[in-house]
Amino acid sequence: MWMAGVAMDVSAVRARARVAVRATARVAVAAALTLTGCAEAREDVHNTLTAAEREAGWALLFDGRSLEGWRGYNRPDIPEGWAVEDGTLAWVAGGGDIITERQFTDFELTLDWRVEPGGNSGVFYRAAEGEDWIHQSAPELQVLDDEGHADGQSPLTSAGSNFGLHGAPRGAVRPAGEWNSVRIVVEGNHVEHWLNGMRVVEYELGSTAWEGLVQASKFAAWPAYGRAPSGHIGLQDHDSRVWYRNIKIRELP
């Protein structure tokens, strides 16, 4: 009887374990995708796709050699401030914000970024042209040296945040000069920001909660903010050195 009880206990534990694995599968996959291409995971290979990534529908937005597929916000050319530097898409001086030539609706976006001490930039999504500035239409994942920039004092404007609206927890971002890995999921109205394997932001565009935050923020002055059902991916010129690489996107059905 004792042995039978042990066997039943073991079976129950195994069953619970299988349920737990299934329940956390999405988080585990998300973390793995976020880390794909990060400096520690793939130091020797950047701006490429594996066979598995190609099979899954991923595409490169930056090939490490040219700025093909990018242009300035509200302009047909590339601002002079952006360049290819040692296999990265880098802001070097002057210029303006840049966007992808293509537009996207539902997608997963992954990339690596690093900034100089005190550096500031951002990754925009569903950006619509026609405004004076890209941030007047597009939500932004903040790219920042939290320790060296004043915006790092508030979770609402810290690295990984949905700038000005949804704060990011402490402890996810790495110091200036080190590479950080990002994953952004936009599916319908659902949005997630991941930073170095941690989900730091989750929200619903157009929800009552989101509308309340927008109306209580500077974005209330710009009716186009967050309204576009599809748009460009954008990178921000904020007058500080920033480097991007392994910029990949997978469109969702």
Element layout with pairings:
Layout: H1 2-23, H2 25-35, H3 51-56, E1 58-60, E2 70-72, E3 82-85, E4 88-91, E5 98-100, E6 107-115, E7 120-127, E8 140-144, E9 180-187, E10 190-195, E11 198-204, H4 208-215, E12 232-235, E13 242-251
Task: Please explain how this structure is put together.
- The relative contact order is 0.21.
- The protein has four helices and 13 strands.
- The protein has 253 residues and is an alpha+beta fold.
- The protein starts with a helix and ends with a strand.
- The strands form two sheets. Strands 1, 3, 4, 6, 9, 10, 11 and 13 form an eight-stranded antiparallel β-sheet that branches. Strands 2-5-12-7-8 form a five-stranded antiparallel β-sheet, with no helix packed on it.
- It has helices spanning 2-23, 25-35, 51-56, 208-215, and strands spanning 58-60, 70-72, 82-85, 88-91, 98-100, 107-115, 120-127, 140-144, 180-187, 190-195, 198-204, 232-235, 242-251.
- The chain has one domain: Sandwich (Jelly Rolls).
- Residues 1-42 have low confidence and may be disordered.
Question: How much β-strand is present in the residues?
Answer: 25-35%
The CATH architecture can be named as Sandwich
Helix content: 10-25%
Low-confidence stretches: 1-42
In total, the number of strands is 13
Counting helices, strands and paired strands, the structural category is alpha+beta
Q: What is the CATH domain class?
A: Mainly Beta
Shape: globular
CATH topology: Jelly Rolls
Question: What labels would you give this structure?
Answer:
253 residues; Jelly Rolls; eight-stranded antiparallel β-sheet; five-stranded antiparallel β-sheet; 13 strands
